[in-house]
Amino acid sequence: MRLGSFSRHLGLAVVALFVVAACGSPSGGGSASCSESTAKTATSASACGGMSALEAAAKAEGKLNVIALPRDWANYGAVLDGFAAKYPEIKITSDNPDGSSQQEVDAVKQLGSTSRAPDVLDVGMAVALANTNLFAPYKVATWADILDSQKESTGLWFQDYGGFMSIGYDSSKVPTITSIDDLKGSAFRGKVALNGNPKQANAALNGVMMANLAEGGSLDDISKGVTFFKDLKKAGTFVPVQATTATVKNGTTPVVFDWDYLSAAHGKDVPAWKVFVPNNAILGGYYAQAISKSAPHPAAARLWEEYLYSDTGQNLWLAGLARPVRQAAMEKSGTIDKAAAAKLPAVNGTPQFMSDTQSTAAKNYVVAHWDAAIS
Amino acid sequence: MTTAGSPAVTANVGRPLLGGRRFSLDWLGAIPFLAYVAAFLILPSAIVGVGAFLDANNSFTLDNFVHLSRSYIVTSTIETTFVSAVTALLGASLGALLSYAIVTGSPNGLLRRLVVSASGVLAQFGGVTLAFAFIASIGPAGFVYLFAQSHGVDYYAHGIWLFDLPGLNLVYLYFQIPLMVLVFLPALDGIKPQWREAAESLGGNTWHYWRHIAGPLLFPAFLGAVLLLFANSFSAYATANALINQGQPMLSQQIAGALSSEVGAYEPGFAKAIAIQMIVIVTVVTVLYTVLQRRTSRWL
């Protein structure tokens, strides 16, 4: 526990006396203040005069605009409530909760720096990489815990939560899966499906890539994955029906390639549902955080990121079955919520991530070859 | 909107000068219709037509049409046309037989009222709901299949055809037949029983009656219904997408793929070129229909 500071902001004398719960921030709270112009370009909490100064500046702004955060997605409801409870002085406006990544970016472009514009974004990687010119670089206090392959080196974007590509299955209908080659057995005839079409859906494209890695392919060349599904289709194992919660529930698709955190949720409907991540093909798929360059509340935006990447924020995501990006580091330091972590399938091995060029190459190959391979 | 409305305006403004009659405002009544057609038919078609010739930077290109030769589009074109033709012909034939069965019954009977109102509902029953109804009943985990299997009948022994073109045909027939009943029943109602009596009193048998009287009278209506059913299948999307998500046999799915890819296969111009191709195919079918219609109307 620390006692906080006095701060001046924008000519308005704002006196804030507050109690800060320990949140793993190493930067000492000083008496330095953080003006709006400083906050706008601050690339870390210490560049803004330390956590306490950042908090004071954020409270002076008094508002935070977030966008496209469904309350039932990755436990965001609890995250928003947690932030609001910790900083009651900051009023959160949650806009278009069911919007897509592209809509978030469109909102930034259309609303500019007006008071309604989004401050922070939670976007898919394809959208993050395509729009770095809209983001302000920022490194959270726990920056070092994020793997280099999961962040932009200056902090324009940094991955937040996600999971690994997995094979979810109803263990009451099919034998236990210990390797992807098991699927070639006759016990799986007419039972294997993808979550979406790989030409369109990111989860499905990663499903094909995961099979590709497990079959000895590389991130640069997805052809072995396409061949794998082509053979499964020929054997009558791979069914072209769209896997949904309904088809899983009624047993039409007892084996589905999907992200482990989404797949684990099928356990609600199918008690014998198990999730398998092959050790030789741990393919990660994460969303990313970014701060808008034109954020109307720059200090609050940065404080929000600090909250998300604190142990508290990370454990809240984990409680929503999403793997927080600092999970490995928190397991080492023992600050992870072990009960929540146990609900996700165990993963042993080094995770791999598709780079932008690799996912473009994979997409191009799949668009050109998928339909012919499957029909 | 103004382009659609202007011919009517000039035609009517010209009249008083020539004939000295009162200025007519009759054309005003057509404005809502013309505005509707302009906003929901002409404008979208124009947007699609222009967009098909634009590349990602909005400059002119023919590449979108060159891409139509991609093997998966060629396959989809053949399969879409095939499914549409099969479900149109089968749906029209079976629907016509069902309509005939109804017409021969009592005009206010329970059977007729039941079938007509059921058709009204089922003709609109499509999309994910319909696909799932089939998956949950005759699908590989459906209760019908499990029942059949437990009695030694495995109708998926050679593959799950429900998730293939035969399955798509079957599911489409589920809304095609009722639609046929709805559009064909009025034509059948127009056939007077007296005509048959007249044919019989002149010594004609059943074959003569159908060959020379009822057949020629009904054939144009039948052909028109086939065309409607063809277009109905041709443009369907949600049902096919829920049933056959991989391989995308329908052109409507290919359009969706090129428009809504989150993995970066976003080709809006190409999607519009596919749409133009679909318009061309339907136009060709309509022209064939018109030619055939003219032929068949020349009876007696």
Concise synopsis of the structure shown:
The complex is a heterodimer of chains A (375) and B (300). In chain A, 35% of the residues lie in helices and 17% in strands.
Features:
heterodimer, A: alpha+beta, D-Maltodextrin-Binding Protein, domain 2, 2 domains, eight-stranded mixed β-sheet, two-stranded antiparallel sheet, 14 helices, elongated, disordered N terminus, B: mainly alpha, MetI-like fold, 73% helix
E-strand count of chain A: 14
Beta percentage of chain A is 15-25%
Q: Give the second-level CATH assignment, the architecture of the largest domain in chain A.
A: 3-Layer(aba) Sandwich
Query: What integer value in Å does the Rg of chain B equal?
Result: 24 Å
How many H/I helical runs of chain A? 14
- Rounded mean pLDDT of chain A is 87
Q: What would you give as the CATH superfamily of the largest domain in chain B?
A: MetI-like
In oligomeric terms, what are we looking at?
Answer: heterodimer
Greatest chain-chain contact:
A-B, 37 and 34 residues
Structural class of chain A: alpha+beta
Q: Any idea of the CATH class of the largest domain in chain B?
A: Mainly Alpha
Main pleated sheet of chain A: 8 strands, mixed
Taking the sheet with the most strands of chain B, its summary is: none
Extract low-pLDDT stretches of chain B: 1-17
In CATH terms, what is the fold-level topology of the largest domain in chain B? MetI-like fold
Q: What would the average pLDDT of chain B be, to the nearest integer?
A: 87
Main structural class of chain B = mainly alpha
Terminal residue distance of chain B: 44 Å
Shape of chain B: globular
CATH top level class name of the largest domain in chain A = Alpha Beta
